[in-house]
Design brief:
heterodimer, A: alpha+beta, Rossmann fold, D-amino Acid Aminotransferase, Chain A, domain 1, 5-stranded antiparallel sheet, 4-stranded parallel sheet, 8 helices, 17 strands, 28% helix, globular, B: alpha+beta, two-stranded antiparallel sheet, ATP-grasp-modified RiPP (chain B), GRASP_targ (chain B), Rbsml_synth_pep_Strp (chain B)
Chain lengths: 309, 63
């Protein structure tokens, strides 16, 4: 049976797992949904009480009933490389592709429905609370007065995007940023704003969870540093996972119905790991490069397992 | 009025265009000019930042 890898061609992180699957002798088909229609063709028939269908890309063809797992890595939007692109074509292509794939017995890393829910940061924060993590005080609001009250209560705040997305046109980045005591919150009325208590951290923690296997890495940080993604200092080293965090991760992954998740924590001066987010599609190659933790092997092993009965 | 958070945005730094690898559809992974897998070179992985935590930020929001 075959592993289906949905990602773009330039995804070197996917290459790391593909190489492992080759080593395991597991058949795979790698394709980018952006190439549907075009380099990808699909067909499924619903006749009688069942359905059968297949996908074709370049010289490879795979039966939908022959899929053991689907890995959603960095797929492009269906239809986005079509000769005549349109929102309608993207919707048609997405419905056709993911609609037929989700009806198979294949296991998902991660299931699209779970992924959509897991991307909502407000949902993440609440699920983290329910799972027993330490969560920094957070406010999401479009009321300037409420933002001012929150700032008065917590004093030292950061602002970050609610969606995790960066502004696109022109290309901008929006790192998590500390805001001054004299900030003017009037513009909070122009869009929902996420404010969070700033955790003075002594280290960043990235904990990668692959179906219950935990790979934690720690990078020392300057207490004044806020967003470690945009600094180049330090390297990641393997870290032990506290028992309390281990239990909370298990509870979170169960609630989220995720097979894969990349958790970010800020470790404060007392050693407490403060939950910042869980990225259901988070990168892991940079962690493995620094720590030699066998994350790609864990993912490949999971993908290579038998499909659901 | 510009949303509050956007006052903290800054221009994205365009990564240097160094992709010394090409996709090999037969092997379904990227290869270097000598045919070896791009992931076999730690230097390539580090130099391209292709696996970094911000590698997907431009087109995806899963860091």
């Amino acid at each position: 049976m075959t592993v289906l890898v949905l990602t773009c061609e330039e995804d070197l992180t996917a290459d790391m797992v593909v190489a492992n699957l080759h080593d395991l002798g597991v058949p795979l088909v790698r394709l980018d949904p952006a190439d549907l229609p075009g380099r990808i063709d699909l067909s499924a028939e619903y006749v009688g009480k069942g359905f059968h269908g297949y996908l074709k890309t370049d010289e490879r063809m795979v039966s939908l009933s022959g899929l053991r797992s689907v890995w959603v890595r960095r797929p492009g939007a269906p239809g986005s490389r079509a000769a005549e692109q349109s929102t309608w074509l993207t919707e048609e292509s997405e419905q056709a592709l993911y609609g037929m794939l989700t009806a198979t017995r294949a296991r998902w890393m991660n299931h699209p429905a779970a992924a959509v829910q897991a991307r909502y940061k407000p949902w993440q924060l609440h699920t983290a609370q329910q799972s027993g993590f330490a969560v920094p005080a957070t406010l999401i609001t479009s009321f300037p007065a409420v933002a001012r009250q929150f700032a008065a209560a917590y004093q030292d705040l950061v602002v970050k995007s609610v969606s995790g997305k960066h502004p696109g046109d022109p290309p901008m980045v929006l790192p998590t940023t500390r805001i001054g005591l004299d900030a003017d919150f009037t513009a909070v009325a122009a869009g929902p704003t996420l404010l969070q208590q700033h955790i003075r951290k002594q280290a960043d923690i990235r904990l990668t969870c692959v179906d219950g296997r935990l790979f934690a890495a720690r990078k020392e940080a300057d207490p004044e540093e806020v967003d470690g993604r945009f600094t180049q200092n330090g390297s990641w080293k393997p870290a032990e996972v506290p028992d309390l965090v281990r239990r909370s991760v298990a509870a979170y992954m169960s609630a989220a119905q995720l097979a894969y998740g990349a958790f970010d924590f800020a470790e404060d001066g007392s050693g407490t790991w403060w939950f910042l987010e869980c990225n259901q599609g988070g990168q892991f190659g940079f962690i493995q490069l620094d720590t030699d933790q066998p994350i790609t092997q864990a993912i490949a092993t999971w993908l290579a397992a038998a499909p659901l009965a | 009025m510009r949303p509050f958070a956007l006052s903290y945005a800054r221009p994205a730094v365009k990564p240097e265009a160094t992709t010394p690898y090409t996709y090999d559809a037969t092997r379904q992974l990227n290869v270097l000019p000598d045919g070896s897998p791009a992931t076999s070179s730690r230097l390539v992985l580090l130099a391209t930042s292709a696996t970094a935590s911000t590698a997907g930020s431009k087109t995806h929001f899963d860091d």
